[in-house]
Amino acid sequence: MKDTPINFEVVAQKIKESELASVGKASIREIKKLIDNIEKETDDKYIRMEMGIPGLPPAQTGVEAEIEALKKGVASTYPDIQGIPQLKNEASRFIKLFLDVDVNPGGCLPTVGSMQGGFAAFTTVNKMYKEKDTTLFIDPGFPVHKLQHNVIGLKWENFDVYDYRGDKLRDKLESFLSKGNISAMIYSNPNNPSWICLTEKELKIIGELADKYNVVVLEDLAYIAMDFRKDLFKPGEPPFQATVARYTDNYILLISSSKAFSYAGQRIGIMAISDKLFDRKCPDLKRFYNSDLFGYAMTFGTLYALSAGVTHSAQYAFAAMFKAANNGEFNFVEEVKEYGAKAKIMKKLFTDNGFKIVYNMDEDEPIADGFYFTFSYPGFSGEELLTELIYYGISAISLAITGSQRLEGMRACVSLVQRDQFKDLEFRLKKFNEHHPPHKARA
After folding, report:
1. What pairs with residue 109 in β-bridges?
2. What is the CATH T-level fold of the domain 8-56+332-435, as seen in this structure?
3. Element holding 385 (H helix, E strand)
């Protein structure tokens, strides 16, 4: 039996029982289930970095508003599919104050988290024009978005943006868009899993090409205002959250309550559709919907088919959180800076023990410390490294499932790692380093 921090035989048995063809290629939820089973069997606590779950208490403003709404009886009635007026109005204000972009409240639609927003956007946008049936992923990205495409049979293409930063991005995008089959582009900013942030120059390029080729940009802002290199909590004052919406009208913004507001459990987000896109007529939509108006088809076609509205009480919570932030009463950015502080410490623990940071630059500037970071270890692919680290009580996910071309890498989420676990993390990384000297290349 090998001298690993977690019982080697138990880990090996649980991996076998999982019947995973490859642990390294397992989905986030499959990894979670495997680690849950090992922890239950051994009573050893893992350094859990596989899931992007908030590690902070939910915003109290939201909790109180939701409780009050429930006391008033909203649980007994269906909410309007368009969302409650308070939420729509405050979402519109929030977008203006923190992104410096005008979106009519009518185009601010509640969704069951950003995941449902993405699912609805992919479904509808790919039906706008017969000849445009493919989504372009500006990767690395959230693995579930590709799963959504596969589940409903949508086509997709992708590339790793890290090799095409700055001016290089234009030619790379044109190589895809010029074919005429791309309906939408999607990326997250800050990025999951790499935590890179697209620059204003890059967003301008994306916006210009979206107009040139009539492509909808889906901007996933799950980690809105969490680029901690800048102070982004100044309602109505620069600097603002970087967004493509300042460079094109062909956009849909996906804003989540989960990370910035630590309100993941109630599954609520906002899909904000630009005014021009919301009112756009697309005759090809009539193949699937009762209307050829994009906003109408999205609301009363796709969203209605997915869910008869978003949890009524959660809408009141999200409205209250937006309102408090808009009024300068709730500094949600300050609340989540703990993620950046932990990331800085954890990255050093990794690099002190032979690991390397995979995605480490935004053009010529070091990336921010935030919710995620990426790492590798000499001589291992990401898939191999994930499997090996499980024996050392460390869980994460392989970049191989994110569309990354850096197959040696893994994604770590800092949120669930508590500061009192840092000593355990350091011990386990040192033990791994001792067992796998980086100067000795593996055969």
Report:
1. 271
2. Aspartate Aminotransferase, domain 1 (3.90.1150)
3. helix 382-390
**Rounded distance, CA 81 to CA 359, Å?**
40
Tens digit of pLDDT at every position of the chain (443 positions): 478 999 999 999 999 999 888 888 888 999 999 999 999 999 999 999 999 889 899 999 999 999 999 999 999 999 999 999 999 999 999 999 999 999 999 999 999 999 999 999 999 999 999 999 999 999 999 999 999 999 999 999 999 999 999 999 999 999 999 999 999 999 999 999 999 999 999 999 999 999 999 999 999 999 999 999 999 999 999 999 999 999 999 999 999 999 999 999 999 999 999 999 999 999 999 999 999 999 999 999 999 999 989 999 999 999 999 999 999 999 999 999 999 999 999 999 999 999 999 999 998 899 999 999 999 999 999 999 999 999 999 999 999 999 999 999 999 999 999 999 999 999 999 999 999 987 654 44
Helices (H), ranges, 2-112: 8-18, 28-42, 60-71, 85-99
Reduced to 3 states, what is the DSSP secondary structure of residue 29? Answer: helix
The dihedral region occupied by 379, where left means phi > 0, alpha psi between -120 and 50, and beta the remainder, is: left
Rounded CA separation 322/89 (Å): 9
Residue ranges, comma separated, of all CATH 3.40.640.10 domains in the chain are: 60-326
pTM for this one?
A: 0.94
Distance (Å) of CA 231 to CA 192, 333, 337:
20, 8, 11
Strand 410-413 and strand 182-188: the pairing is: unpaired
What distance in Å separates the CA atoms of residue 387 and residue 384, rounded to the nearest whole number?
Answer: 5
Reference 317, options 63, 7, 37; nearest CA is 63
CATH code of the domain made up of 60-326: 3.40.640.10
Distances (CA, A) of 390 to 174, 379, 402, 429, 432: 41, 17, 20, 12, 11
d(CA 289, CA 298): 9
